[in-house]
């Protein structure tokens, strides 16, 4: 009997898993027949997010040279390295280009084709352009994967959920806002992947409240300006007259930091230093029952943040002292020795003594909340203040004299690679990482400035509060005390939270009803060693795995910058090896049973 593997989700995560299966198969799978079933209504490789059917105005937020789907020797994995081209090498474009998402989708489709072609003889891939509705079957037996519109299920020895970003039902606040909008004839667009949102209800010239200042807002900004016929003449925006007026705010009240616009030179900081495997093992050993490394349920920001702060500080000051020593007041050797043993208060005093210019010191709290305690006398003062803030951010992020910022970025990647081993420690870390390390391209922030000067975008401030009252939506912020903005339209510019309990995906809802384990943030709990799903008693399911943002092992993305360790690649490799080992053992057991059955029949015939 041929073995069968079902992968639900054929986007970049599913593709990455197939690539690792192909790489590990020569060692772990001896050529037994295998059917790999990919279940996804969207095209293999690109999936939903990177599909061709979206606006060519939408870009990636990474340089083309910083995007790869292939492993290298920096990935901590048991399987072999399988090198391949980055996006810019494959497409033959300048490495500093911010490619559009359609081009990235073409790259992902090519990677998928290469991965499938690399599978050994006897392994066949089948794509089912349908939605998976549920998974059934006993823990120790073959699984059934039920597909939309199919009367019979796919039979699988193993199932891997690589679902990617999912839609979710509205939470209580969103439900109330949506109901208010229906009752009063307003427009309310809930959290969504912006390329899928119907923006036609946002009328030209009308004010629109926008809550969220990350990448979803950038996409919204593009689609409602250039997407409606506007254009840029240098640093000036020339409107088409079809744009609404976007009043944008968020918890921080500022956009994500610009992508850094220069290359790394010289030696990298030796990371990890203060947040590595030993510290992760120590954190896992602290709460009772975490020795198996299932998930860090119970670990809070207070448990983890001191190590994060120390690690990022080390990356920052290593770069400052070794590349810009003229801006320091002691040797790196002396500073490093004292920094290693200092507590937080002592580190503050050490930095103040060793780094004369406050602009050269790393202040993570200030970076995280730049408008904390800042007040403006009017909305017009806020507009000018925010434009100055964005302009300063762009100058700094494109000036190599501030290269400790790039060292902090590398530190963030290192820290993410370690924290993912803990499981779900709360959404704070993912948000902080995205804000500092996964912001928009510099040109997008220059566009934002032009739109602000043109009056198409207006800033609301930090800790934006939205109220539904007097037949409208009204927004206010302590950044401008006593002031408010009203509109008949509200857009929640962010992705839906990937929680199991509120997912609209029918398969996840079925798993939730069955009692699959959830993290405190409502994510699927998985065994951090190989991605197997955990039940509420902490037992890993022998035949079900999950990878991606709906799990407590979520990573910054399914692809990554070359030579940065790629935690998603490490996870893909571990899951692929676990899958192949299971299938090989199942095939051997089946063969042994068949031999025994034949021998039994022959013996019976002789008797």
Descriptive keywords:
607 residues; 3 domains; six-stranded mixed β-sheet; alpha/beta; FAD/NAD(P)-binding domain; globular; five-stranded parallel β-sheet; single chain
Q: What do these coordinates show?
A:
With 607 residues, this protein is an alpha/beta fold. The protein has three domains: 3-168 and 498-592, FAD/NAD(P)-binding domain (3-Layer(bba) Sandwich), CATH 3.50.50; 172-256 and 440-492, FAD/NAD(P)-binding domain; 277-373 and 400-437, no CATH class. It is built from 16 helices and 19 strands. It has a six-stranded mixed beta sheet with strand order 3-2-1-7-19-18, covered by helices on one side. β15 (472-476) and β16 (484-487) form a beta hairpin. α1 (12-28) runs parallel beside α3, α1 (12-28) packs across α16 and α7 (301-323) packs antiparallel against α12 (404-419). The radius of gyration is 26 Å and the shape is globular. The model is unreliable at 288-295 (pLDDT under 50).
């Amino acid at each position: 009997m041929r073995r069968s593997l079902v992968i639900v989700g054929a986007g970049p995560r599913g593709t990455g898993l197939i690539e690792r299966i192909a790489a590990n198969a020569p060692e772990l799978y001896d050529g037994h027949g295998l059917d790999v079933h990919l279940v996804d209504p969207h095209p293999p490789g690109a999936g939903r997010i990177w599909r061709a059917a979206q606006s060519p105005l939408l870009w990636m937020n990474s340089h083309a040279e910083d995007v790869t789907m292939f492993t290298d020797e920096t990935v901590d994995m048991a399987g072999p390295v399988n090198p391949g081209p980055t996006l810019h090498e494959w497409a033959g474009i300048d490495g500093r280009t911010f490619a559009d998402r359609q081009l990235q989708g073409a790259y992902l489709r090519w990677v998928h084709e290469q991965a499938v072609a690399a599978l050994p003889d006897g392994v066949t891939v089948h794509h089912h352009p349908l939605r998976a509705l549920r998974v059934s079957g006993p823990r120790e037996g073959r699984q059934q994967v039920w597909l939309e519109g199919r009367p019979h299920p796919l039979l699988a020895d193993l199932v891997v959920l690589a679902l990617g970003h999912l839609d979710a039902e509205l939470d209580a606040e969103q439900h109330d806002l949506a109901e208010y909008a229906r009752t009063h004839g307003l427009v309310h667009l809930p959290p969504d992947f912006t390329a899928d949102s119907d923006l036609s209800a946002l009328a030209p010239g009308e004010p629109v409240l926008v809550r969220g200042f990350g990448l979803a807002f950038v996409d919204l900004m593009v689609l409602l300006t250039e997407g409606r016929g506007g254009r840029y003449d240098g640093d000036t925006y020339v409107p088409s007259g079809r744009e609404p007026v976007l009043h944008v705010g968020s918890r921080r009240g500022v956009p994500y930091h610009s992508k850094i616009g220069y290359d790394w030179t010289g030696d990298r900081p030796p990371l990890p230093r203060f947040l590595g495997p030993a510290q992760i093992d120590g954190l896992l050993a602290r709460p009772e029952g975490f020795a198996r490394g299932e998930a860090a349920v119970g670990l809070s920001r207070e448990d983890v943040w001191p190590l994060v702060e120390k690690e990022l500080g080390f990356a920052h000051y290593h770069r400052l002292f070794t590349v810009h020593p003229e801006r320091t007041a002691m040797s790196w050797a002396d500073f490093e020795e004292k920094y290693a043993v200092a507590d937080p208060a002592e580190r503050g005093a050490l930095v103040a003594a060793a780094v004369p210019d406050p602009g050269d010191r790393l202040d993570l709290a200030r970076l995280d909340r730049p408008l904390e305690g800042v007040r403006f006398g009017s909305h017009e003062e806020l507009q000018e203040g925010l434009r100055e803030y964005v302009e300063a951010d762009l100058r700094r992020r494109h000036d190599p004299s501030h290269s400790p910022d790039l060292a902090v970025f590398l530190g963030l990647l290192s820290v993410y690679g370690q924290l993912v081993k803990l499981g779900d420690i709360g959404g704070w870390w993912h948000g902080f990482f995205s804000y500092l390390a996964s912001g928009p391209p510099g040109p997008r922030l220059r566009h934002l400035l032009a739109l602000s000067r043109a009056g198409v975008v207006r800033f609301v401030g930090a800790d934006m509060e939205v109220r539904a009252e007097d037949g409208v939506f009204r927004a206010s912020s302590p950044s401008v005390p006593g002031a408010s903005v009203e509109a008949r339209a509200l857009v929640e510019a962010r992705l839906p939270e990937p929680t199991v309990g509120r997912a609209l995906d029918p398969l996840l809802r079925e798993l939730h009803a069955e009692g699959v384990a959830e993290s405190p943030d409502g994510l699927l709990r998985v065994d951090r060693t190989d991605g197997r799903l955990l039940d509420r008693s902490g037992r890993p399911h022998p035949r079900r795995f999950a990878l991606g943002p709906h799990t407590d092992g979520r990573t910054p993305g399914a692809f990554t910058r070359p030579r940065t360790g790629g935690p998603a690649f490490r996870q893909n490799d571990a899951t692929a090896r676990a899958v192949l080992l299971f299938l090989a053992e199942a095939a051997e057991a089946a063969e042994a049973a068949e031999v025994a059955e034949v021998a039994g029949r022959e013996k019976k015939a002789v008797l």
